[in-house]
Amino acid sequence: MKMLWKAALGGAAALAMASNPALAGSHAKSEMAVVDGPRIHWDYALWGKSRAITTYLDNMEKWLPERTGGKFTFQLHWGTISKPRAILDNLKAGSFQMGSFCASYYPGKLEAHTGMDLPFLPIDGLSMLKSVTHDYYEHPVLQAEMKQWNAKFYMSSLLPLYEIVGKGDMPTSLDGFKGMRIRSLGQQGKAMEKLGAVPTSVPAPEVYTSMDRGLLDAAGFAYYAHKSYRTFELGNWFTTGLAMGSIACGSMFNSDDYDALPPQYKALFEEFIESDAGYPAQIAALDAAELAAPGEFKAAGLKEWKVNPVERAAFEEAGGKPVWQDWAKSMDAAGYNGQELLDTIFASIKKNKAAAK
Questions:
Q1: Nearest-5° angle of CA 111, CA 49, CA 243?
Q2: Which residues, 6+ apart, have CB-to-CB distance to 45 below 8 Å?
Q3: 3-state DSSP call for residue 29?
């Protein structure tokens, strides 16, 4: 049984394979033993369409049936069984077994999870983002938050650090954001507020229409998403080096459905995480897409604002550190120890930076 795992979309696929020999070599691996068990079908709720950020999910849809000889089937539903902002509630209700989430889509429901939304965190690369996310999500407060929704965290989507595509005059300093109507979620939106912008939390599938109608001047996305949602077709400038931060998105189980799985199927989900089809494929696909995008944007006629390290440090001072402290205070108000949560994030960052040296 040869498994061909999706590593990227379109032209990015070849780049991902070329830059990751281990991934390419996985195609030739010998057959893996079929895991026997009962016949089960699971439905997974997400939105949009197949793209770089859904690489591991596209792979899982094939991987589970192949590893179980067709006994565990798994189907992705692209906006057909739940709207993005309703997935958490519908998962709790048992409408499906798994779904995607972005913590900022659910105000007041996954508050502590928005710690990974904080802008301008000193996180270098997707492997480090993965490690910090999993460290943070092991905190008892976050596990209790998920439990309130009968949910269990599984994997992070690993959204790359956000950059901006906009219409109109390109800003060239912090002051250039004053009055700008920008799609900027959660804590990143609060950072943009500190710079005088007017943030909105428009769901990703609605951003193109909002920009086209003149309701938005700019949008913050990872590059792959600017391509997927076609914002670059409407924009005339984009940033590189801003690295606003990631957004806390990922996959979650309905706890009851997960608990009802036989042990061998639970083990398969654990095996998948670091298999060639899981995080390694996800990181390869996203890295390839992020590398290719700036050239494609310039070819489409967009101007590039290269944010230099001095400018980036100014962004962190004005829109990062104040938001970190505001967030910790808001966690205190929600009944948590905000400073402890913030310290947990930065302790993991420090640990993972040291490990990378």
A1: 50
A2: 77, 81, 82, 87, 90, 91, 95, 96, 98, 99, 100
A3: coil
Whether residue 318 contacts residue 307, with contact meaning beta carbons closer than 8 Å, is answered with no
- For residue range 325-338, what is the model confidence (pLDDT) as tens digits? 999 999 999 999 99
Answer for the pair 48, 278: CB distance below 8 angstroms, yes or no.
no
Say if CB 215 and CB 72 are below 8 A apart: no
Whether pLDDT at 5 is above 70: no
pLDDT tens digits, one per residue of 155-182: 999 999 999 999 999 998 889 999 999 9
∠ CA 269-130-270, nearest 5°, is 10
Half-sphere exposure of 308 (CA within 13 A, CB side): 3
- Domain architecture of the chain: domains with CATH: 12-110+149-158+248-290 (3.40.190.170), 163-245+303-356 (3.40.190.170)
Please tell me the predicted confidence (pLDDT) of residue 15.
42
Q: What is the pLDDT of residues 42-92, one digit of tens each?
A: 999 999 999 999 999 999 999 999 999 999 999 999 999 999 999 999 999
Give the gyration radius of the chain's Cα atoms: 20
Question: Which residues, including other chains, have CB under 8 Å from residue 178's CB and lie 6 or more apart?
Answer: 195, 196, 197
Q: d(Cα 58, Cα 346) in Å, to the nearest integer?
A: 32
Going by pLDDT thresholds of 50, 70 and 90, the confidence category of residue 27 is: very low
Angle between helices 279-299 and 126-137 (to 10 degrees): 130
Residues in the chain, overall count: 357
